[in-house]
């Protein structure tokens, strides 16, 4: 079967959304990204369990200025990667806002919670246990820690979400 899925990334400015997408699409990392202006739209076709899956990945700038675009951005989404930065307490505290706005518009769609920047272990502020407890509270079954810099778990996180979104769409 062929699938076309729209995947969105949500989370505060600077948590690494663009870097995660770049790692997933190009398998590379760059420190040169400017804060995303508006929306980046990227595409990757992958084979999952014998199915051709075209994923459109929408990466909206996390700045407040783009708040008005959010509804439009979420329209038709099959799933979301909600990202915080493990070295930033505030990005973790703001997760509620991102998750709630996604759930409001896309009630039944899967979410994968991502704690990014695990390579900065000495600067870590949010523990795995804190995040696990939070995910449970919010009824999110998938939580994974990643590093867009080293590539750790990035492919796994995207594929996890894509699989869930495929199941829901079939
Ligand atoms: P907005 O576009 O403003 O919403 O930001 P964003 O969430 O897309 O963040 P972006 O990918 O632009 O990354 C912000 C900064 O964090 C950049 O300097 C990245 O190089 C850095 N960064 C992203 N991911 C990682 C990571 O896993 N480890 C480390 N050490 N730095 C990272």
Architecture overview:
There is one protein chain. The protein is α/β, with parallel strands linked by helices. It has one domain (2-169): P-loop containing nucleotide triphosphate hydrolases (Rossmann fold, 3-Layer(aba) Sandwich), CATH 3.40.50. 34% of the residues lie in helices and 27% in strands. The chain contains 6 helices and 6 strands. The chain has helices spanning 17-26, 70-74, 89-93, 95-105, 128-137, 154-169, and strands spanning 2-10, 39-48, 51-60, 79-85, 111-116, 142-145. Strands 2-3-1-4-5-6 form a 6-stranded mixed beta sheet, sandwiched between helices. Helix 5 (128-137) links the parallel strand 5 and strand 6. The model has no long low-confidence stretch (mean pLDDT 92). Bound molecules: guanosine-5'-triphosphate. The site of guanosine-5'-triphosphate has 22 residues, from helix 1.
Element layout with pairings:
Layout: E1 2-10, H1 17-26, E2 39-48, E3 51-60, H2 70-74, E4 79-85, H3 89-93, H4 95-105, E5 111-116, H5 128-137, E6 142-145, H6 154-169
Parallel strand pairs: 1-3, 1-4, 4-5, 5-6
Antiparallel strand pairs: 2-3
Bound molecules: guanosine-5'-triphosphate (GTP).
């Amino acid at each position: 079967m062929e699938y076309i899925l729209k995947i969105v990334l949500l989370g505060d400015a600077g948590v690494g959304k663009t870097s995660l997408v770049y790692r997933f699409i190009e398998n590379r990392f760059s420190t040169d990204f400017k804060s995303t202006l508006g929306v980046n739209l990227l595409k990757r076709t992958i084979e999952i369990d014998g199915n051709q899956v075209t994923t459109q990945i929408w990466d909206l700038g996390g700045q407040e200025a783009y708040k008005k675009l959010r509804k439009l951005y979420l329209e038709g989404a099959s799933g979301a990667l909600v990202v915080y930065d493990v070295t930033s307490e505030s990005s973790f505290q703001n997760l509620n806002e991102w998750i709630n706005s996604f759930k409001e518009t896309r009630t039944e769609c899967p979410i994968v919670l991502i704690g990014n920047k695990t390579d900065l272990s000495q600067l870590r502020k949010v523990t795995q246990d804190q995040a696990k407890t939070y995910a449970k509270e919010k009824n999110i079954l998938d939580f994974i820690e990643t590093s867009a810099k080293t590539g750790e778990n990035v492919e796994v996180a995207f594929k996890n979400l894509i699989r869930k979104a495929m199941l829901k769409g079939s």
